[in-house]
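User: Hi! I'm working on a homework problem where we have to compare a predicted structure to a textbook description. Could you give me the structure for the chain below?
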Amino acid sequence: MRSLRHRYDAGRGYLAACTLGLPIDATREAVRGDLDRWTTGDANAGDYSTTVERARAHAATLLGVAPSSVATGSQVSVFAALVAASAPSGTEVLCVDGDFSSVVGPFLARGDLTVRHVPLQALADEVRPTTGIVAYSLVQSATGEVADAASVAHAARDAGAFTLVDTTQATGWLPTTGLEADLIVCHAYKWLSAPRGAAFAAFSERALAEITPHTAGWYSGADPWASCYGPELHLASDASRFDVSPAWHAWTGAEAALRFAASLDGAEVHAHDVGLANAFRERLDLGASDSAIVTWGDADGTDLAALTTAGITASGRAGRARVAFHLWNDDDDVDLAARALGH
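Assistant: Happy to help. Predicted structure tokens:
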């Protein structure tokens, strides 16, 4: 794909899309312009709502659903908690061993659900007739492994289980328009280059029917500006009933970032990112993979320290060193990281 490095101020040696990500130029300009308008008293609440609606449409494009199926929020764990709070007592929840806490924690916190943790590769096979919910990340944060979403969806469908999929480590580099899931949740930072504080979720008809909008507030009505006060409960008929009051400044940047991400050819981005990741794996004598995230054992942090010393931004998770390749990276970043590790 054509180089997009010019859209980012930084990028050389930044191998942490899976940790924080970098803003594109349009996001940076949107946030700065918003700060200027706020500073001068020219910011307008109605304009922010218009921005959120545009962002909702971009998110829908990235997930391959209608905008009416998308709810906007601030954190993945809040959406997952809605599923957990709506589950009947005793429901069996199937999770991935070592998955990100935002996907697992809400179910454990209930205290009256049966939560099982299994290896990612065994997730589909471990779905039982008694399984009520399958909750997992499409791409594992700690290892970069990619789930076989189709097999999991098939197994869950046969069991009648509700499926929750977190695509925070996927959407932006891995096309996520064909997922079969009852609820797809995603935070827009990391791979999507948005400020932290903007998340979204796609609700199926089943999710709309079965999940209680416990976070209902003024923004859960069909017209938030007509839903500001009680005593009535104001709920939209579509997924926006699960909206929470938006973090305006974050969504200003997120709209620009999501617009950019939605305009890209997902297959080209995937090929670019995975191609660089596999080039790096080859330099380290690691087998090829289908992930843009590369991890390897680094229990004492020696390799992470070497990368940092070489001016590379990387991360360490669960006793492993972790790097990721995205739009601002190229072959020179592969070489820089490999040489830092003596390869």
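For your comparison, note the following. The chain is about 35% helix and 15% strand. The chain has two domains: 5-22+265-340, 45-262. Good luck with the assignment!
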